[in-house]
Design brief:
CATH topology of the largest domain: Rossmann fold
CATH class of the largest domain: Alpha Beta
Oligomer: single chain
Bound molecules: D-glutamic acid
Largest sheet: 6 strands, parallel
CATH architecture of the largest domain: 3-Layer(aba) Sandwich
Helix content: 40-55%
Number of domains: 2
Structural class: alpha/beta
Distance between the termini: 33 Å
Length: 283
Amino acid sequence: MTDQRAIGVFDSGVGGLTVARALEAALPHERLIYLGDTARVPYGTKSADTVIRYSRQIARFLLAYDVKYIVVACNTASAHALDALRAELDVPLMGVIAPGARAAAERAELGAVGVIGTIGTVASRAYQRALQALRPELVVFSQACPLFVPLAEEGWGNHPVTAQVARHYLSALQRDSGVLDTLVLGCTHYPLLAEAIADAAREVFGREVDLVDSASAAADDVVRDLAERGLGADAATADGGGGGGDGGAPAQRSRFFVTDDSRFGELATRFLGRRVDGEPAEL
Ligand code: DGL
């Protein structure tokens, strides 16, 4: 059984392109319809009610493109809105928190896991719940790292300021947690700062710390879930329905919508690994 319809992916802005990139690598036959809510980013500092309201509007937008599946690429939206969307929509959904928690629970050997994310994600305790549902004995320590988002967008992955900020946040985490061996990058932007975070973690925790990328964990889970549901596309008959069916590899026929396009093209190159221009979206 195959399904040639596109997969919807959404985020508060450009960060979810790290998830889109992982999805394109894992599922080369699939087309994506991406929506970045660049006019209203960040979600990480907004209330749960606001993020749920925005997420509902975006899901409606994606469903108008007849998507067969929705990936909530934003950690903050996954934390606040996934349950509400699942209760209301017929389409299957995948967030990034359960996959990130699964990957961390499989890898943590010391019994303690660190989670870094936005203020909203950390306050929601969604990672704690997901991790402890899998391994009740795990102790979970969290730290909000709000400055990481603008640093990643500036492309400051190797900048000394980022190294200093990373040491600051991870020292605060370490004061609570003591030694840990696994740290979840619980925000779309953090994979772009992985080197600075790994260096700071080595210094602060005095050992190598395994960084869990929730974007690639989510892509793995989407691969599995699509196959189990018989929803995967195949290359031979991809028809490009729902727009963009003009030939080329599925990734080339994917579409990227934004609610404000001021910096999208430039940032997309960094987050997605190739240049794409955002198409305007009205929610
Ligand atoms: N996409 C958000 C997340 O993963 C980070 C940016 C924001 O705060 O909107 O939580």
